[in-house]
Amino acid sequence: MSSPKPEKPSTAAMPVPPPLRNDCFALPAGVHWTPVDEALDLLRERLHPVCGVETIDLSQALGRVLAEDVIAARSNPPRANSAIDGYGFAGPAGEGVQVMPLLDGRAAAGGDFSGAVPKGHALRILTGAALPEGVDTVVLEEDVTVQAGHIAFHGPLKQRANARRAGEDVEAGDVILQEGRHVTPADLALLAAVGIGALAVRTSLRVGVLSTGDELAEPGIDAGAGHIYDANRPMLLALLERMGHSPVDLGKVGDNRDLLRAALDSGATRVDAILTSGGASAGDEDHVSALLGEAGAMQKWRIAVKPGRPLALGLWDGKPVFGLPGNPVAAMVCTLIFARPALALLAGMGWVEPQGFEVPAAFEKRKKQGRREYLRARVRDGQVEPFASEGSGRISGLSWAEGLVELPDGALHVRPGDPVRYIPWAGFGI
Ligand code: AMP
Ligand code: MG
Q: 293 and which of 215, 298, 377, 387 could share a cystine (Cβ 3.0–4.6 Å)?
């Protein structure tokens, strides 16, 4: 991690740097590095929804967050109906050949049959038609011969065969979806089916993204030799979009405290939360952490996670700021592991856990006790393979990967074939 850099001494006085040690990346002894789970527990305890509530039409609800439990206005199906095209009667039907007089008329979906069907009689009925009075069982049309005003088929047939019970899917008054739910396409079908035309949802969480660093140039322009392109901003904006928030591009600022202060001031008036990248450590040019520190609401998070650097978390004009590492790999991992659940809480989605599963490893790796590790990875032929390099500057590895392998905090020796936890991007909701 960065520590405050000393004033540069003159060349003559410069001490010869000691050689790097093999354990130069080992965690400092005696320093408390917070385990990932402890950090997450803190977020979970302390954050709450900051978004308002609005009522919207069902047609606008995809991807929105439910502000309250949704109760079925009516049952699905609302009435008992036929699951097939066939002939309805009062079941059960006994063994052997069954012959029944066929009534005139038919029951079709949307067109009720007004009469009752006397016991021992049958009526033509189509899929989805409400069962007329006297009908609780339906025989498949392919199993029936119709002749001289009668139907005949081979029994037996159980009572209620091929019939759907009223409310067998959902009963009126049931809670069908819970507060905090992110509405999916299937949810729209369920909501519509039980008669919900409008619903209370959270206003979208507006999340600003601000890149920091003198070295950053805008993609598409001819950058000078001392510049790199701002890779974090498009990535973070897209991650937020996928997570269901409203991303707001706050641009980039150089390593200049006044400009950064102005950007945070103006950003805080436009958004509910801010993700910054870069400048979050404690070096000379780490202005995000310095400014948040000045504002008096900064926490330096030294979390036992790889890849990751200290995160600067704080409030700016009351808006939470997540000061992410500049390194794109660390920025993405820290966003998925820490910012995602935090933002979900702010957005009223409740706590979200990454959904992973165990897959046999296609690799061997030893890790030391002390920090959780995330490897860019993907599954091929039923085995999970990591990206060839763990270098945290390798953006190509993020793009190559289809998810992350999560290795637990303790020491571990993974051998090929050992089960490891793999979290596909979809398991992070992206
Ligand atoms: P910092 O956290 O500011 O010390 O930056 C760590 C590393 O990430 C440096 O190599 C930066 O040049 C790089 N970096 C910072 N911001 C970005 C960005 N927006 N896109 C790509 N690389 C970045
Ligand atoms: Mg920087």
A: 298
